[in-house]
Amino acid sequence: MTYSTEKLSEEKVFKDPVHRYVHVRDRVIWDLVGTKEFQRLRRIKQLGTTFLTFHGAEHSRFTHSLGVYEIVRRMIDDVFDGRPEWDHDDRLLTLCAALLHDLGHGPFSHAFEKVFDFDHEDFTRAIILGDTEVNKVLQHVGSDFPEKVAEVIAKTSPKKLVVSMISSQIDADRMDYLQRDAYFTGVSYGQFDMERILRVMRPREEQVVIKKSGMHAVEDYIMSRYQMYWQVYFHPVSRSAEVILTKILHRAKQLFKEHYLFKYEPLHFFSFFRENVTLEDYLKLDEAVIMYYFQIWQEEADPILSDLCRRFVNRNLFKYAEFDPAKEYKKMAELNALFIQAGIDPDYYLVVDSSSDLPYDFYRPGEEEERLPIHLLMKSGELREFSRESEIVDAISGKRRTDHKLYYPADFLADETTAGEIKKQIRSLLE
Amino acid sequence: MTYSTEKLSEEKVFKDPVHRYVHVRDRVIWDLVGTKEFQRLRRIKQLGTTFLTFHGAEHSRFTHSLGVYEIVRRMIDDVFDGRPEWDHDDRLLTLCAALLHDLGHGPFSHAFEKVFDFDHEDFTRAIILGDTEVNKVLQHVGSDFPEKVAEVIAKTSPKKLVVSMISSQIDADRMDYLQRDAYFTGVSYGQFDMERILRVMRPREEQVVIKKSGMHAVEDYIMSRYQMYWQVYFHPVSRSAEVILTKILHRAKQLFKEHYLFKYEPLHFFSFFRENVTLEDYLKLDEAVIMYYFQIWQEEADPILSDLCRRFVNRNLFKYAEFDPAKEYKKMAELNALFIQAGIDPDYYLVVDSSSDLPYDFYRPGEEEERLPIHLLMKSGELREFSRESEIVDAISGKRRTDHKLYYPADFLADETTAGEIKKQIRSLLE
Amino acid sequence: MTYSTEKLSEEKVFKDPVHRYVHVRDRVIWDLVGTKEFQRLRRIKQLGTTFLTFHGAEHSRFTHSLGVYEIVRRMIDDVFDGRPEWDHDDRLLTLCAALLHDLGHGPFSHAFEKVFDFDHEDFTRAIILGDTEVNKVLQHVGSDFPEKVAEVIAKTSPKKLVVSMISSQIDADRMDYLQRDAYFTGVSYGQFDMERILRVMRPREEQVVIKKSGMHAVEDYIMSRYQMYWQVYFHPVSRSAEVILTKILHRAKQLFKEHYLFKYEPLHFFSFFRENVTLEDYLKLDEAVIMYYFQIWQEEADPILSDLCRRFVNRNLFKYAEFDPAKEYKKMAELNALFIQAGIDPDYYLVVDSSSDLPYDFYRPGEEEERLPIHLLMKSGELREFSRESEIVDAISGKRRTDHKLYYPADFLADETTAGEIKKQIRSLLE
Amino acid sequence: MTYSTEKLSEEKVFKDPVHRYVHVRDRVIWDLVGTKEFQRLRRIKQLGTTFLTFHGAEHSRFTHSLGVYEIVRRMIDDVFDGRPEWDHDDRLLTLCAALLHDLGHGPFSHAFEKVFDFDHEDFTRAIILGDTEVNKVLQHVGSDFPEKVAEVIAKTSPKKLVVSMISSQIDADRMDYLQRDAYFTGVSYGQFDMERILRVMRPREEQVVIKKSGMHAVEDYIMSRYQMYWQVYFHPVSRSAEVILTKILHRAKQLFKEHYLFKYEPLHFFSFFRENVTLEDYLKLDEAVIMYYFQIWQEEADPILSDLCRRFVNRNLFKYAEFDPAKEYKKMAELNALFIQAGIDPDYYLVVDSSSDLPYDFYRPGEEEERLPIHLLMKSGELREFSRESEIVDAISGKRRTDHKLYYPADFLADETTAGEIKKQIRSLLE
Q: What ipTM does the predicted assembly reach?
């Protein structure tokens, strides 16, 4: 028996609140879970700052990664196995890609990538191909195996079916995170009948397709996704925390550029400030490290940095107002000027944040690869694009929804000991 | 309207996966939740190292504290309110004590308290009475209010009924954590019918009692607790992580005593090493800070400290064997000697850990205050100790169960490049 | 204390799997539940023939009626009570109307009403106003109280707010049945966040309105309803059973008209056959009685009646094919002729059944009273029709969806011992 | 391919609220479900009169039978398959026995068997071996197959392992009904971690055994069972309904013996009254038929029969008092005499009912076959009787618990228009 087909002497399970149990029989999977790069995902929250709005959302990317693996394992072992369109030799590749698909995520990825201009997907690739424990395990399977796994995750693999199992409009990734995020936040919106969807999935050369009889279950899944986006992922309070987080990173980077003397040297941040991050530096960064710095930065001399850190650590967030950039740009300029007059730096304290997207632009065939439409498999064997069959999905298909909000520190504006008159003006503009 | 009776203009809710919603109408409660000392509980896991065994157990003491508050609120508002035995004036006191009962917990409390010899309950008291945001809010209610809250939490309050709602054999604390820990780990054992138990609770001068008709629901709760202890809280894998954690702290303290030169100065630890911790120091310590140190200590020169930290961070835990101290003390001495011969320091790498306790010693009336028995309220109005009515509880009442395990690094012992013969001997003794 | 305000000495509860507990404090409600007319609802399934498709759907209208009562009770006691727009004097009226709203339902109402041309709502009114135990209880409250309750149920009451709590696009009736039917069938579609919806409901003079912040929860509810209709209520297999049931009743009525000599005199049916049903006759009819007749009719000499009854009792249902009446009327005529040639009476064995409706035509303001739109209560106090705010609901609003199917006995057509050639033709037309 | 190994072209599923889906691939199973004898189980409630206490308990033996089949299927396909101790040739036999194990149950079996002195297990055997659709399907597998299936159900089969999967202290039957009855009643007690128990089950020659690591999950299951018995199955209100039901049957039988002239001839009952029931008669009897008679018997001239029927149909049950037969036999004689004086026939209106049993006498090895102890499979391969390892189960093992209650018509006794003085005496004795 080679390493790639080696089974554990006894199946191992992880107790999982979403899937009851995650089952592992393959030695390779077991070894991957044990690597320090994979264990690192325990120290990165799946939903970043959302726990400040939904207090249950403290779950990590580790749990989500196991979940995606388990869904893919069930697809293969319970549904695809034995069907002529499914190549059994792709099994291990698919399981590994599922398990490792988020491996390159760092703490609060979104904000970090924006401020320090990098892409976590490059780090996923770097971890899989670099000098890491994960790479060693994958190498053990075959010298080109790391590259193959990386290609599936990067969606550049020629194995389109395998790619679609992990990254498509109805993939294991989304099916896990919707259910998991719903479970941990406690909202009911993320529930859909995954058992049913798995049962109606069929492998085809280009992608996973859905038997027509499962159409309603998929409609329900799409609606769940829509609701989760607007109810949870884009919740204005989480976005407020995200805004502050981003501004902390901006401020620290700015201070570094200006040769500000930090009370505690931010060693872990230097390569980020220089936008020259090595894999080793990157792997050292997790949420514990970030939170450590945010805590000690509360004591920094720079008033903006210390204030923003205090806000983030103690959940003293910005308030928000509806904002329409198309109509209200004049008001924005006015506010900007007033903030400066009031001595509150608008670069850090008057922030427009926009959520827009994907979840509402469900089915626009032919744009980027990930936007490939879901196909229904009709009784005749024909494939039909989903929105042609589903009136509900057709109705919402291609409609982009955008929401803009203006974030500001209500407590500063309420403090009338200085610039009272100007602050009053600001407040009346904001209401 | 005074501050103590002030209501929010509109009820606020927290979405909670266990209780659906946590409801807040009282201004005082809302203000307490917003304090930085309470927000700090977000950075301390409810179950310490258990997430290394049950990966879902990443929830914080913040969520649990809100849960205990909510249960007490429902007891009062839905069941006790209007009954002659319940003094409405105790409402706010009880809610505050429920919310704040775990306020003094630090990161991985158990290990920290053992190694650095302090009691988190003293810090709970210190936070409530000291110069803190929490104290300011409580002072606002009344100058003696902080002291009253502290007394309820310390179980020294003359208001025995109020104390029993938060600390007794069937209190809001336990009812929340059993359900919450079950929910986040995904095990089914922690479930019981809390709705029913709340409905049959009745206030009496000395304590909360249970209507006889609710006896079976309470039996089920007691069994849940028993199962949770042995299945989750005392799980040998979590204990392995706990053993390593404790040894890290021991080692660091020892190195400090020996004037070891740390590569990174452990500023946050100094006052702990000196066993002279101020409230300010204490509040700075949370799990992010601990994990930060454990990560950088992986690079320390001391091989024991760096090895143990690597183990904890990357979840490379000790294995365990059953151990009976009464019968196997000789074997233990032998193992100790062999470890030394093999160059593995037994003080850090050969550890006996014992779990024993309370959960099995359910109903021993008349020992410490917390061990007060549950009383059933009979139809006649008479009170009867629970185990006199319940055959099941009687059967297990007062039986202490203890479990000892021996923890060791299996990987070290498997490495036969050095001291191969001795390690072989050790392994055969351990099996 | 008068009867109308009399409370039970201790609250009674019914254990309910959907709402956990149904709480009763009011003597009037307790007495109504005990009447034989209300107990009769135990012998009428909530979902008629659906249990033949979803085997868990064996729950009765009794359980649903308690559920609607409980939801209304929570609306009033937990949300409306104390608000100026809510008249506390309407409480008992609303609770009684909620509890009794389905009182006139008979077994398999839909089919019975169609074949014997009556309306169960007339019987609801008759039971409330007639010589019944229910009437006695209501009379005890006040001599005009039965009439008031009947008016609310009939939607003719001037108390529009009360009516809307029980009959509107988002009422207690629908909220209970969606959740209950989902629970008992085991499908996940019927779930939505009722806790949230209750919390955002506000009484207004004309109707219950929804605070804007609850919009997404209501969207989710509307989608649940849509899914339940097409996935459960209009499931083609249940409709097949419904078709057979209807044809049994037709056949029995026809035989009666033709003075057919029944082996067992169908005493309970006589007044239905004559379309001259008294209240007393009506109340004697429940599903047990119907099933009794269907069983003994299996032994009747008339081959159509006995065959259809055997099919229904033993779940040997008709198969179905898609059918488009607009395009396929010629094919239908052809099939009709062929059935006659094959000796299979098309009046009973070739049936078009159409489902269409309401669930998809969600929000057409201004049609029948029940179709009144849901109104959102904006922060400004203004009311806005729901679909103007919700893009999703707007997208599906007013779109009627209809589905036609053709039902036939596949087993008859497969039996080629007679008319083999003709049956082959029929089969090829049907495929 | 022979019939016994024939697979459906596509797997069929039944939506089930307890197991999510019941999966059928085997043609034989599919055909058995379609027989009229199996469909008949839809017309027999799983919990008899319990729905009068827990209104959700309206589920049928049909749903339970499918559930037991599904659990056994999962045991075999997910856990036993491929293990040397499991004979793959026993698969179909086990599945059929699981599906059909309750086939001979009639309506309200317990009461019927007591009054008319028969055993439903004889009818199970008769249906399997007699001239039935079920027999035809089984014959199709092999001429001795019906006999083999009957033997497994009767526990006389030499295949002890197979028997133990369906009838033992931890079998598929109990695992389904505990979960199912908990689900439909809505109580939380019946929940346990079946996934875990299935995973630790191992086939051995004599019986299914449990891996030591699953001990706690089995403890939890045993406690669930204990709770379900005393909380649900022996609920005094259900027992009251059961008492009345039994008395109706007694009365009808007695009247028949006395040549009473029934207004409506009870054709379906004649062979029962004569205690000479044929299979054909038996199969005609279901709950619809029983309820039909109970309804028409409300109009019988015999005051006892009509009164008892009215009570049952309209849920006007007897009240109960605690009763200790050992101490209170004198009081019982006194009450008997007073009832006669008051003109209330004590044979029908003063009834002692006792619940005692099995659930509490959990583990008495060596009595009847069904009482065989559960065995734990130790790491060493040794088997140990469960209660030797589990302190909790040891504590309750072998302890019989009995509960006696005295049932009587409180309404009769409250009516003081006749025999007022005597009734007062009775009431004071009963309180």
A: 0.94
